[in-house]
Task: structure prediction
Amino acid sequence: MSNRWRMAFVAVMLGLAELAPANDSPAEPVRLTLAEAIELALAHNRDLARGTLDVESSEMALRSARESVRGLQLTPDGSAGWGPDGEDWRAGFRAQATASPGTRVGVSAAARQIEVDGSSRFRRGEVQVEISQPLFRNFGSIVRNEPVAASTDSLRTVRRVWERDRSALVVRVVELYEELVLLRFQIESDEAFAARLDRLWALADARERLGRTSRTEVMRMDLQRGEAAVRLETGRSRLAIQFQEFANLLGQPIESMFRLQPPELLDLNVPDPERALGVALSERTDYAQALQDIESSDRQWRLARRALLPDLRLTARRSVFGEGDDWSQAGRLEEDDWFVGLTGDVNLNVRGAWLDAKRSELDVDSRRQAAEIVRHRLALEVNSAVATYRRTRAELELAIRNRELAANRAELARALFEAGRASADTVSDAEADFLSAELTALSAQREASLSAYRLLHALGTLVPAPRELLMREGRI
Result:
């Protein structure tokens, strides 16, 4: 066999290998209900998982702030060195803790030895207790616990955003789920429409040869067949892309396939607008965040006013110690010393502190205005969601009725056309109207389902937030 024929033979065999079906059959689509899809998304959505890390980071920051506010310090203290006169070393330990009002209690114990050339050694043992209490500016738990309060506010803010993201994710899952169900039904409807048109076109084409139907009617029906084929191709392409997006939303590999079950319509007992707004104001985390901002700014205003007061500290200290040439004398602790007094830092120029207090007061008013803006925005959202829910339910009833009428008309037109008592235009019009009415009913079904979930999202009850993240207006 020549080289040229050998190369041709190899090319043919490679081509056959490429055309041969793979041994691995595609994975069977997973049956998935809407509730299961929501559960998967809440557990595995990647964006939501990143928000979980933000929450955990804020929790760690709060724990760190609590530890710093405790003010518990256990400090070893020691030094050793040599100078021109001899050696000097010191060893000790200090413990300190701070109470909520800012009271700081410290206990220390130390031993010291000084050795001077040509002289006897000097040894000293000492135990000291010191209590310090801030007055005026830094007195009280509001100052002491500010790091914890600020970290708590930050954690609640992050958690509220995460809870709202969870609710929005559920709405997005429902949107894509309903979109996939709608696309599947559209494709099935277009396939059935195309099959009916093929059969009717064949009958019209045969009648056209007999002169019983005009050529224009046959060409129109053929055009409708082409349009149905285009819709089918478009729908199938959209379905494949939407499935990938849906899988990614659920946190699954994008090649995952699902067999979706059409969900039941949620039947909600819609309250009147005033009650619905009341539910939203008590359940929405974004409004709770607006109320927390008022509370936080009010706390900052009170702290800013504290800065106008003098910074004084009352300190009491008592020491017992012993000194001598050997450690037995140093350890007797027969001597004592004490001190009680005031220390302070008073800045007579308080204009900067006064301006800070004034700015904080303005910030409180600004936060109240922001909360009022959020309140009105929620009212608009809730009213719109309620109106949309009622409208889509009414439209669904009309769409179902119109679909039944269009189906009856199309069935009658087909029967009359097959009996030779109606024109091809009549039956093609009836088929087109039936397809349009069917797609309109499917779309109305989707919108009615989505409007229920969007209403619950607007009320804040779709994924209820923990009660500790919600606030009442009476608290501010």
Observations:
- Residues 20 and 396 are 49 Å apart (CA to CA).
- The chain has one domain: 25-74+139-310+350-475.
- Confidence is low (pLDDT under 50) at residues 1-25.
